[in-house]
Design goal:
single chain; about 190 residues; alpha+beta; Ctag/Cox11 (Pfam 04442); 2 domains; five-stranded mixed sheet; flat
Length: about 190
C-alpha cells in the first residue's frame, strides 16, 4: 500500500514538473517552428541572394505600424514595388522619435498571405535587433530581401500575385537602473 502511494506521488510530481517544463518551452519551440516553416507568415532569413531568377513578378506591399505607448512615426518610403521572383530588393522605412527622450523599440513582422512566409527571405533588416532613437531623432532603415524562386513550383502560391510585408514597432522594456541611480540609493539616512 505504501509502495503504491509513493509511486502515485512520484508520478504526480514528475507530471507536474513535465507540464511546467513544457510551459516554459512552448514559446521558444513555437517561434522556432514558425521560423523554420514560415507558419503564420513568419519570414525567413537568408545569408545571400539566390543564383537564379524565377519566372514571374509579384507586387510587394509594405505596411508600417506603431503600437500604443510608443511615440514614434513609422512609414515605408514606397507603398509597393513590383519584384521579379529571385531578384534582391532594398526598401527603406522612415522612422522618427516624436518624444523628448531617448526611446528603444523592436519591430515584429509578418507577411500575408501566410503561405508566402516560407518564400519571403530577408538578408538585412532593422527588425533583427532593437532600435534606439534619441529625442526627435529620425532614421531611414533598410530591408534587403527577395522572394525565393522555389515559390514558382508550389501549387499553393500559383494564384498569389501580391504579398504584404507588415511591421509593428513595440516599445522595448526599460532596462533596470543601476543601483546608484535608483530612488533613495544616495539619500542620507536620518
Amino acid at each position: 500500500m505504501i509502495k503504491a502511494k509513493r509511486l502515485t506521488a512520484s508520478i504526480v510530481v514528475a507530471s507536474v514538473a513535465a507540464m511546467v517544463g513544457m510551459a516554459y518551452a512552448a514559446v521558444p519551440l513555437y517561434q522556432a517552428f514558425c521560423k523554420a516553416t514560415g507558419y503564420g507568415g513568419t519570414t525567413q532569413t537568408a545569408i545571400k541572394a539566390p543564383t537564379h531568377l524565377g519566372k514571374r513578378s509579384m507586387s510587394v506591399r509594405f505596411d508600417a505600424n506603431v503600437a500604443p505607448g510608443l511615440n514614434w512615426s513609422f512609414t515605408p518610403e514606397t507603398p509597393a514595388i513590383e519584384l521579379q521572383v529571385g531578384k534582391t530588393a532594398t526598401v527603406f522605412f522612415h522612422v522618427q522619435n516624436l518624444s523628448d527622450s531617448e526611446t528603444r523599440a523592436t519591430a515584429a513582422y509578418n507577411v500575408a498571405p501566410e503561405v508566402m512566409g516560407s518564400y519571403f527571405d530577408k538578408i538585412t533588416c532593422f527588425c533583427f535587433s532593437e532600435q534606439k532613437l534619441g529625442p526627435h531623432e529620425a532614421a531611414d532603415m533598410p530591408v534587403v530581401f527577395f522572394l525565393d524562386p522555389a515559390l514558382d513550383a508550389d501549387e499553393m502560391t500559383k494564384q498569389v500575385d501580391s504579398v504584404t510585408l507588415s511591421y509593428t514597432f513595440f516599445a522595448s522594456k526599460k532596462p533596470p537602473q543601476p543601483l546608484a541611480l535608483q530612488a533613495g540609493a544616495n539619500q542620507p539616512k536620518l
